[in-house]
Amino acid sequence: MILSNDLLNKIDWEKGNGLVPIVVQDEEKEVLTLGYMNKEALERTLKSRNLFYYSRTKNRIRMKGEISGNFQFLKDIRLDCDNDALLLTVEQIGPACHLGTKSCFSEKVELPKEEDRIDYSFSILQELENVIKSRKENPDEKSYTSFLFKEGKEKIFKKFGEEAVEVLVAENRERRIYETADMIYHLLVVLSYEGISFSEILKELKGRRK
């Protein structure tokens, strides 16, 4: 726990050019607003328990509610792990937003459809790798993957080569995407046959990054 007297010196003020961003939430943990404080605004807040913000547009310190009467009273304050942001819990009097809404974050944004979501975590490759491994260790006569492992190295390597060529000769963008997916699947089969995990490939790529 940080003593309030030590907080002013612990914050990395230089990173924000003398300002620290503050996330303000109510006692039910609903985020109300995002603002900024300089050292003097934070000092006033700690001493009075009234929230003081630094206005970047007006270049001055202002107390929340000084005109509207929608005061915020400090209940809890936490410093983030990089010492450059604060989370403040407050008792909110009236609406927090100048538009009259409870929160400044009241306008909901529609997310892309799930089928259009791009997964950058490579989780689908991990899932596919696990399925291939399962078909290798527990053959299923109805499985194409099990069939490849049964046929052996020559068949597995030949199919990968064929799919790589299909990528190169694809006549349009959609077909190239389709053939690339096939090629990646057959590459994973090759790697599984050789006892190489895809994580080893990622590790090698990461090691080459400079």
Automatic annotation (TrEMBL):
It is found in: Cytoplasm. GO terms for cellular component: cytoplasm. GO terms for molecular function: ATP binding; phosphoribosyl-AMP cyclohydrolase activity; phosphoribosyl-ATP diphosphatase activity. Transmembrane segments: none annotated. Its EC number is 3.5.4.19, 3.6.1.31. InterPro entries: His_synth_HisIE, HisE, PRib-ATP_PPHydrolase-like, PRib_AMP_CycHydrolase_dom, PRib_AMP_CycHydrolase_sf. Gene3D superfamilies: MazG-like (1.10.287.1080), Phosphoribosyl-AMP cyclohydrolase (3.10.20.810). It catalyses: 1-(5-phospho-beta-D-ribosyl)-5'-AMP + H2O = 1-(5-phospho-beta-D-ribosyl)-5-[(5-phospho-beta-D-ribosylamino)methylideneamino]imidazole-4-carboxamide; 1-(5-phospho-beta-D-ribosyl)-ATP + H2O = 1-(5-phospho-beta-D-ribosyl)-5'-AMP + diphosphate + H(+). Residues 34-105 form the Phosphoribosyl-AMP cyclohydrolase domain. NCBIfam families: histidine_hisI, PRK00051.1, PRK02759.1. In the N-terminal section; belongs to the PRA-CH family. In the C-terminal section; belongs to the PRA-PH family. This is Histidine biosynthesis bifunctional protein HisIE. The lineage of its organism: Bacteria, Thermotogati, Thermotogota, Thermotogae, Petrotogales.
